[in-house]
Design goal:
The protein has one domain (14-233). It is 77% helix and 0% strand. The chain has helices spanning 8-35, 38-41, 43-47, 59-87, 91-127, 133-173, 179-199, 208-230.
């Protein structure tokens, strides 16, 4: 009976690839989970124009801000973990993906800072008896508008770039079933068109049209995360030469 020995280097490489896929998939799922509740958590800020003067509760806003910090770090984490894998297929696409995710994380944090500034203004208003209510409301509305614009650029436009860069790598390499990156590649121009429409004021963020346009990208990221956690990369494709 002949015993076939698997080289140690091969076993080590396989284990490393599996750990990479697990970490990347888990981070993708974290970004998906942490992004869902924020709109609901920010409702007190949205529903009360005089939130900065004390209307509504700050609890949801603070929890939403914390989740978005985790979201920002996870976004950058996905790019850092997947960069070596993507680079083997296309260094340009890998750099584009990394840059888009880093920029997305930075814009998310900028939005968080704007909302935390609203909470800080509210605390100052409670601490001081001599406040200009109209100015505080204006400042609060301005900071909320800053969050809306950073959301448009960070959590809506940057995922378009990410899907095009990483989706092209995943499709060409076959590291995951091609139907998964196809969803992202089809959804990217759809979401881009929606972002342009929102930018020009044709409709608002949070509407049903905006939600439908973002759905394919959400499905792409969720499906990629689940596949990487459950199945990992297709091992026979990882040794392909860069193109």
């Amino acid at each position: 009976m002949t015993t076939v020995h698997t080289p140690v280097a091969t076993r080590t490489s396989t284990g490393l690839r599996r750990r990479t896929s697990l970490v990347a998939g888990a981070l993708y799922l974290v970004t998906f989970v942490t992004s869902i509740p924020t709109l609901a958590l920010y409702e007190p800020l949205r529903e009360h124009a005089d939130f900065v003067l004390g209307a509504g509760s700050t609890t949801g806003v603070l929890w939403g801000a914390l989740l978005e910090v985790v979201l920002a770090l996870s976004c950058v984490g996905t790019a850092v973990v997947l960069f070596p894998v993507a680079k083997r297929q296309s260094e340009t696409a890998a750099l584009g993906f990394l840059a888009a995710r880093v920029l997305e994380g930075g814009l998310i944090l900028l939005g968080v800072v704007s909302l935390l500034s609203v909470v800080a203004l509210r605390a100052d208003a409670h601490a001081s008896a001599d406040v200009d209510s109209a100015s505080l409301v204006t400042a609060g509305s301005t900071l909320t508008a800053v969050y809306d614009q950073t959301f448009l650029l960070g959590q809506s436009l940057m995922p378009v770039v990410s899907a095009l860069c990483l989706g092209s790598v995943m499709y060409r390499s076959g590291l995951v079933p091609r139907i998964i990156p196809v969803i992202g590649l089809v959804g990217a121009p759809l979401l881009l068109a929606s972002d342009i429409a929102i930018f020009w004021g044709l409709y608002q963020q949070g509407t049903s049209l905006a939600g439908l346009a973002a759905l394919p990208i959400a499905v792409w990221e969720f499906a990629l995360g689940v596949w990487l956690v459950v199945k990992g990369f297709r091992p026979t494709r990882l040794d392909a030469q860069p193109r």
